[in-house]
User: Fold this.
Amino acid sequence: MIVEKIDYKKKYKNLYLPKQKPMVVDVPAMTFIMVNGSGNPNNEDGEYHKAVELLYGLAYTIKMSKRNGCEPEGYFDYVVPPLEGLWWLEDDNMDFTLKDKYLWTSMIRQPEFVTKEVFEWACEELKRCNFNCLPRWKNT
Assistant:
């Protein structure tokens, strides 16, 4: 029996595909790995690039856990969801040309089987690969 991978973009089209008109969308509780930061996202040595690298490192460590004998309880195969982000400025100016003043949270949704323990395990795995900063756990 072949079990199909879960693709969150397809399963939850109402959340991931843009609509032509504004509408109310009921968003279910979801688990994310998130990194907060600031600064210009175009700076290749900046926080944003490091955060994205870290997020994908954790996401793929969890996804590939089944291949190294560390499969979490309840694991199922899935497509790593897309990178998501929140962007803002602190002052009322809202001049988005001031990229050095950006504040942001970047995040990747995680499957339902990802617990705090699974997240902590993935962090430990990445520490062995010389990642110096790790994001926080967030279940929303």
Notes: The mean pLDDT is 88. Strands lie at 6-7, 31-38, 78-79, 83-88, 103-110, 136-139. Residues 5 and 11 are 11 Å apart (CA to CA). The longest strand covers residues 31-38.
